[in-house]
Every structure is written in C-alpha cells, then in structure tokens.
Task: structure prediction
Amino acid sequence: MIKQKITLKKHLKHLLPYLVFSVGMLIIILYDLTYSIGVDKLIYIVYLVFGLYSFIHIYLYFEYYLTNRGVVLFIDSENSVIKYTRKHESEILISPETIRRIEIHQTHNYSNKGDFLTTDNFRYYKFFLKNDKQVIITSLLCPDLEYDISGKSEIIKSVIASILFYKSSID
Result:
C-alpha cells in the first residue's frame, strides 16, 4: 500500500511553474518601470493579463489545498482500492464495487503533459459512491493518480479544472 498526503514536494510541483512565470513577469515589469521602455499602453494589458492569471493560479492552488487538507490516502494498486481518511472522520473505502461513477476533471492540455499554462497540472477525481457519498481527490494530494474503470469513468476537459465552478449532472 502506498500512503499519500499533501507534502512540501507536492506543494512545489503545483507552485514551481507559477513561480518561474511570476519571476519572469516581475523582471519585465521592473525593467519597464526602471528604464521606461514606453512600449505604449499595450504593456498595461500584459500586466492586467498577468494579474488575472496569477489570481486564477493562486485560487486553484488554495481550492485544491482546502479540499484535501488533512486527508490521507492509502492506495492498493493491485486490488484497485483506495482508503480515504480525513482527520476526525471515518474511513471511506473506494473500490470498483463501491463506485457508481467517476468524473476526471482536467484541462485540455493535461494529457499532453506539455504544461502550456501553469494551471495545466491541476486535475481532480470526483468519485460518486453507491452509498451516495462523494469523494474528491486532487492532484495536490495525489499527483500521479490513475484510476479508470471503463463504463464508469468520464473525462471532463475544461480551460481550468476548478472544483467550485463545475456542477456535476449527478449533484
């Protein structure tokens, strides 16, 4: 069994692309402010896009963190069983027999592993269990989770894989 929980390494996996992008943009902004390159007012549109993009990335990061904060997973790959445990709550067993449906939410570029945008490495699984419980496992908790049951799994692609802004048809 493999134990998964949110660690510093997983934090860095989600934050590093954004930090590299941010440092690059800050260098451009500081250079512009220092030397007044005066590229016209077009540069302010770039700054606005950078600010919006930064907000989206930080929002997704905190959304994923708050969703799986305090969760510990025990993954048994051989039997396709996941034990989902949240602090001060009972353990939930996820197995092919207990699953009614799986939604895999990811960006359009996720499967390409190209990371066109820094938000492309955000992905989450939403398990609908037969006992009417729902379990969400984000890529911040378990980045390399591959759990697919043919006939029960559906991949949902969007520009941004946000948990809050997607309403499932089963909900």
